[in-house]
User: Fold this.
Amino acid sequence: MAHELERQVVLVTGAGRGIGAAAARLAAARGAAVGVLDIDPDLARQTASDIRASGGKARELVVDVSDRTAFMAAARALRTEFGPLTGVVNDAIWIRYGPIEAVEEDVLDRMLSVGVKGTFWGVQALLAHRGEKPCAIVNLASPAADLGMPNAATYTAVKGAIVAVTRQMAVELGPQGIRVNAVAPGAVPTPGARAIVDEAGYAKRRQQTPLGRLGEEAEIAAAIAFLLGDDANFITGEVLHVDGGISVKSM
Ligand SMILES: NC(=O)c1ccc[n+]([C@@H]2O[C@H](COP(=O)([O-])OP(=O)(O)OC[C@H]3O[C@@H](n4cnc5c(N)ncnc54)[C@H](O)[C@@H]3O)[C@@H](O)[C@H]2O)c1
Assistant:
């Protein structure tokens, strides 16, 4: 397990903090060279330097995932340093919640640009900078793709699209040796999530989750690392729920 991702080159978006940072750290700990991509330069540098300080291989890539040209240039730089890409984790997100009647055009544009366009550019970056080896893509979905949540229509639009394209891309890219899966985390109190969910909201989520607690960044990272690795070699088009059972609870 310790060297499960040896010889892999994995680009992780949104890797400056939260689930993306945990996924980047774990992939590096398992032997992958990691591209730590984030729009925030300080966060990207911090994750990458933490990985290097622990003896891992990492390069910070300061990019807005919605900028296709910049994303491609970053993937090229990663390939130049560590070799052809073998994996991409599309994690970056920009979220605003609000009632449907108050959804602003610029907010919807930004959410779709980061969440959906960013995922397409991540996949294109892998296609352009992969080598001969089999590859794996992990997209970040959410139970929100399947369940209604008040004030979250823009978020469900992004995550519903991610689930749909994960399955579609698995079919289209499978013949090229590329597996495409998603991880759907339950409630994980990351810095980004804490900005939109208050303590009362977390109390409700704990109560609604069959396992009776919130998730941890490391638990989501473990599922991402599994889907990147050889133990998942015959898994594609799957949405792996890592959510304490919240998505299967009816009442
Ligand atoms: N935390 C949860 O409870 C939860 C639940 C379900 C799904 N998810 C999904 O997991 C993923 C990570 O969530 P998180 O809670 O860790 O988020 P977060 O907000 O804590 O971290 C997101 C990271 O993405 C970066 N980012 C934002 N816009 C970017 C852009 N345009 N280009 C590059 N980087 C950008 C941010 O700087 C930040 O470092 C998201 O896709 C989210 O939808 C999270």
User: Anything to note?
Assistant: Residues 13-14, 16-20, 38-40, 43, 64-66, 91-94, 114, 140, 142, 185, 187-188, 190-193 surround nicotinamide-adenine-dinucleotide (CB under 6 Å). The chain has one domain: 9-248. The CA atoms of residues 76 and 229 lie 23 Å apart. The mean pLDDT is 97.
